[in-house]
Amino acid sequence: MHLVTLAGSPSAHSRSSWLLQRAAAALSRPSRTSHHIVLRELPAEALLHADARHPALAAAIEQVLAADLLLVATPIYKAAYSGLLKTFLDLLPPDALRDKRVLPIATGGSPGHLLALDYALKPVLAALGARHIGDAVYVLDSLLPLDVSGQYRLASELDQRLQRALHGLLPTPSPLALEPA
């Protein structure tokens, strides 16, 4: 089974990317390969010009096409997922997500931004062929504070919600290996 993650934040120190890494670590298994795509590290000019033939973009697209499980993380800005993620998703061919299990993960500053997942991101994922979209995980920025060592901390109830969403994503339930928050 091949796991691919898409980190859609333009920020190097992103709560959504941190949650994505945590989720990917929980899904890692010796029998499962994984590939992590950090969209902000892709060539900006190629992204802006929608040059899907650029080697870095072509490789990222191929990884998404090869995925069985896809975790997509984004911050929510002004009631929408990141423009960086939108730009990349627009490069994917129609039905790129057919037969893939997809989990949207997002962070945002307001409870009202939760709806951006249902009204903006999930329809795009479905338009790309995803038929098994897991229960989205949305976390308020205020619920992912930095501790004194500069690490994000996830409350127990949010950690359990992430675990439930990951369990629902898997074709057959398997134990997860999340470290304590």
What does this entry look like structurally?
With 181 residues, the protein is α/β, with parallel strands linked by helices. The protein has six helices and seven strands. The chain has helices at residues 15-27, 44-48, 55-66, 83-91, 115-127, 156-169; strands spanning 2-7, 33-38, 69-77, 80-81, 101-108, 132-133, 137-140. Strands 1, 2, 3, 4, 5, 6 and 7 form a seven-stranded mixed sheet that branches. 34% of the residues are buried.
Shape: globular
CATH topology: Rossmann fold
Any idea of the CATH class? Alpha Beta
Strand count, sense and barrel status of the largest sheet are:
7 strands, mixed
Number of helices: 6
CATH superfamily: Flavodoxin domain
Domain count, please report it.
1
- The helicity comes to 25-40%
Supply the CATH architecture: 3-Layer(aba) Sandwich
Please report the distance between the alpha carbons of the first and last residues.
27 Å
Low-pLDDT parts are none
Q: Averaging pLDDT over every residue, what do you get? A: 91
Q: How large a portion of the residues is in β-strands, by DSSP E?
A: 15-25%
Cα Rg: 15 Å
Structural class: alpha/beta
What's the helix-strand series?
Answer: EHEHHEEHEHEEH
Strands, total number: 7
